[in-house]
């Protein structure tokens, strides 16, 4: 079985979209894959309750309890790997996980670590993507699924979705339309990656 571990920090809407796609598309039967756990670095993450309501195992690991980013990432790797019998999950999926990961973490999961970013990379890496796209006068915005590398938001692109920027858009309306596309492309990119494993 190809075990998938999803990392979240907040609402978990992409995690829910992935979990529902896994159920609807019968990933266990078709791709021999399952979501083994949802892990958050925040105990108050709304997505934890949503994951539990979907019958998924959950765990938390509070980054504030660790003296350094390296110490937290080392503990997080141990927790993630504990959710696979071989200690090597097929994929680690970042779904609104708001932590910059250390090179050691990224290297540990090289080629198996995915992220979704709310811009058409390589444009607007980092935070405040919708605000920056509007300020730049972009006619289009979107979302990108990519492999994670040590350089923030610069890994190989796996999928993208484009949405038009409307004259009436503010960062909230644009973010909401981009998010609907994220929910579509992230599960597809995960399946494409599983098929290549």
How is this structure best described in words?
With 197 residues, this protein is of the alpha/beta class. It has one domain (2-196): Rossmann fold, CATH 3.40.50.170. The protein contains seven helices and seven strands, in the order E-H-H-E-H-E-H-E-H-E-H-E-E-H. It has helices spanning 13-24, 27-31, 46-53, 69-81, 103-108, 129-135, 171-196; strands spanning 2-8, 33-40, 58-60, 91-94, 113-117, 140-147, 157-164. It has a seven-stranded mixed β-sheet with strand order 3-2-1-4-5-6-7. Helix 1 packs across helix 7. The longest helix is centred in the C-terminal third of the chain and has 26 residues, at 171-196. The chain is globular, with a radius of gyration of 16 Å. 39% of the residues are buried.
Unreliable residue runs:
none
Total strands: the figure is 7
Helicity range: 25-40%
Order of helices and strands: EHHEHEHEHEHEEH
Corresponding CATH superfamily? Formyl transferase, N-terminal domain
From the 3D structure, determine the CATH topology.
Answer: Rossmann fold
CATH class category name: Alpha Beta
Structural class estimated from helices and strands = alpha/beta
- The N- and C-terminal alpha carbons lie at a distance of 12 Å
CATH architecture: 3-Layer(aba) Sandwich
What is the global morphology? globular
Mean pLDDT: 97
Biggest sheet features: 7 strands, mixed
Adjacency order of strands in the biggest sheet: 3-2-1-4-5-6-7
- For the CA atoms, what is the radius of gyration? 16 Å
The proportion of strand residues reads 15-25%
Count of alpha/pi helices? 7
- What's the number of structural domains? 1
């Amino acid at each position: 079985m190809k075990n998938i571990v999803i990392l979240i920090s907040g609402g978990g809407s992409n995690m829910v979209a992935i979990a529902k796609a896994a159920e609807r598309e019968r990933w266990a039967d078709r791709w021999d894959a399952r979501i083994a756990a949802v892990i958050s670095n925040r105990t108050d993450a709304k997505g934890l309750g949503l994951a539990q309501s979907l019958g998924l195992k959950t765990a938390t690991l509070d980054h504030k309890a660790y003296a350094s980013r390296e110490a937290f990432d080392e503990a997080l790797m141990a927790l993630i790997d504990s959710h696979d019998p071989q200690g090597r999950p097929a994929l680690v999926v970042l779904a609104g996980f708001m932590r910059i990961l250390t090179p050691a973490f990224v290297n540990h999961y090289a080629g198996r670590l995915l992220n979704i970013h709310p811009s058409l990379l390589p444009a607007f890496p980092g935070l405040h993507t919708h605000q920056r796209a509007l300020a730049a006068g972009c006619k289009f915005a979107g979302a990108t699924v990519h492999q994670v590398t040590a350089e923030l938001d610069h890994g190989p692109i796996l999928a993208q979705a484009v949405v038009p920027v409307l004259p009436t858009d503010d960062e909230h309306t644009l973010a909401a339309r981009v998010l609907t596309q994220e929910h579509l492309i992230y599960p597809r990119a995960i399946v494409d990656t599983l098929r290549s494993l």
